[in-house]
Specification:
Blueprint: H1 25-37, H2 48-59, E1 64-68, H3 71-81, E2 89-93, H4 99-106, E3 110-114, H5 125-131, E4 136-139, H6 151-161, E5 164-168, E6 176-177, E7 180-181, E8 188-192, E9 205-209, H7 212-222, H8 246-252, H9 256-276, E10 283-285, E11 292-294, E12 300-304, H10 310-319, H11 335-339, E13 343-344, H12 348-356, E14 357-360, H13 362-365, H14 372-389
Parallel strand pairs: 2-3, 2-4, 3-13, 4-5, 5-8
Antiparallel strand pairs: 1-9, 6-7, 6-11, 8-9, 10-12, 12-14
InterPro entries: DegT/StrS_aminotransferase, PyrdxlP-dep_Trfase, PyrdxlP-dep_Trfase_major, PyrdxlP-dep_Trfase_small
Family: Belongs to the DegT/DnrJ/EryC1 family.
Cofactor: pyridoxal 5'-phosphate
């Protein structure tokens, strides 16, 4: 069968679902209400940011939250609120988005890039143990692709060494670990509302935490150094304007009512694809970490057999109408980070992932489970060709 990249007929000609999806009636009504009120900023007396923050904190199992302009700023503010600053080290995983490290740099601290588990690709407790020094102040596990990191051993390590734990939950809205929601498992958790995420207002983020003193410091960092309940022009600490707007919150608050249904839809697609891939032994689904009780499936990560030409496979899959994503390069290989002082530990797990792992993006996962057959068929077609071409 001729590949589409070589002039053959593509497996799929239909489009995949758009992301973000169209506004639902509740979003349209609330956005219109905010626009007509004129109370667009977070400090003008509107209530939608406050309602969103309270709802997210509650869903995360903690009492406090602060809404911010994006999750990078959220990670920065969380670190500031936990006392992380100049000269400190923060351990981050090697297989993650660059913002996990740049947020540490924003706080004046040093990102220390530690390896991921070679099987599930989440931050390895063993690698963290090896990376801890006398300057380590915090650990930043990432709930990658919607799966919760295995938090118990990471929290145990943090407690043993007196370290803060900041969860990067940017991709994991609604995920649970041992029946507990992510975001509330460490000292602070940060969600993203960037355009690709499971809930989006184009941009945005939200910090959740359980300790009142930490919350007050985070809130101050995000509100130009003001103290909660303090004077408008009183700035007892250094802070920035990192706030989310009422308009953005109006897009997000109604989304919480449909988030669970969308997670179930993505899980149904992933389950169907995993069944279909039983007939394509060169492709396996990256498993969920230990302790996962709900995977929110922001992405589905697939591992290709080491003999498959991944770059050709990505190009050929796109031609078949089933575009996949190459995923992250190892964080420690980014010269811009090392130039700013980041330290990279040996990371063979992340390096192997960068060679063999591809992603099925969220929009594709929102299709009907039957459409998973197109993904599997295209993979089988492309992998068969790669096997024939292998010397």
């Amino acid at each position: 069968m001729t590949l589409a990249i070589h002039g053959g007929t593509p497996v799929r000609s239909a489009s995949w679902p758009a992301w973000p999806p169209p506004l639902d009636p509740a979003q349209r009504e609330l956005v219109t209400k905010v626009l007509e009120s004129g109370l667009w900023g977070a400090t003008q007396g509107g209530s939608v940011v406050a309602d969103l923050t309270a709802a997210f904190a509650s869903r995360s199992g903690v009492p406090y939250g602060v809404a911010v302009g994006n999750a990078t700023l959220g990670l920065f503010a969380a670190l500031r609120g936990l006392g992380v600053g100049r000269g400190d080290e923060v351990i981050v995983p090697a297989y993650t988005f660059v913002a996990s490290a740049t947020a540490v740099l924003l706080a004046g601290a040093v990102p220390v890039v530690a390896d991921v588990d070679p099987v599930d690709l989440h931050l390895s407790p063993g690698a963290v143990r090896d990376a801890v020094t006398g300057r380590t102040a915090a650990i930043m596990p990432v709930h990658l692709a919607g799966s919760p990191a295995d938090m118990d051993p990471l929290n145990d390590l943090a407690a043993r060494h007196g370290l803060a734990v900041v969860e990067d939950a940017a991709q994991a809205h609604g995920a649970t670990y041992r029946d507990r929601p992510v975001g509330g498992l460490g000292d602070a958790g940060v969600y993203s509302f960037q355009a690709s995420k499971a809930m989006t207002a184009g941009e945005g983020g939200l910090i959740v935490c359980r300790d009142q003193a930490v919350h007050e410091r985070v809130w101050s960092a995000c509100n130009v150094g003001r103290a909660p309940g303090g004077r408008w022009y009183g700035h007892p600490s250094v802070g920035w304007n990192l706030r989310l707007t009422e308009i953005q919150a109006a897009l997000l608050l109604p989304w919480l009512d449909r988030l669970d249904e969308e997670i179930e839809r993505r899980n149904a697609f992933c389950a169907a694809l995993e069944r279909e891939l039983a007939h394509v032994p060169e492709v396996t689904v990256v498993p969920q970490p230990e302790g996962t009780t709900r995977d929110s499936r922001h992405l589905l990560m697939l591992r290709l057999d080491a003999g498959v030409d991944r770059e050709f496979a990505l190009a050929a899959m796109a031609a078949e109408g089933v575009p996949l994503d190459a995923g992250y390069p190892p964080l420690g290989t980014m010269a811009a980070l090392t130039a700013e002082g980041a330290r990279a530990e040996p990371c063979p797990g992340a390096e192997e992932a960068a060679r063999t792992v591809v992603w099925v993006r969220q929009a594709m996962l929102m299709d009907a489970p039957e459409a998973a057959g197109d993904v599997a068929e295209a993979l089988a077609k492309v992998i068969t060709h790669c096997s024939r071409e292998r010397p």
